[in-house]
Design a protein that fits this description.
about 45 residues; mainly beta; three-stranded antiparallel beta sheet
């Protein structure tokens, strides 16, 4: 499983990995909001 952080759009993209996906729908997008004083740098678990 892979987690890609898109800080420009405040989204996380989760996937089974490039070789394990059969369709584009195998990706899951998760949006998040943080307080102005919080910075998301290292995501280890969702």
């Amino acid at each position: 499983m892979g987690i890609k952080h898109d800080s420009k759009h405040n989204q996380l993209r989760l996937s089974k990995g490039f070789n394990l996906k059969q369709h584009r729908s195998d990706f899951i997008l998760a949006q998040y909001e943080t307080r102005p004083d919080v910075t998301v740098e290292n995501i280890q678990q969702v």
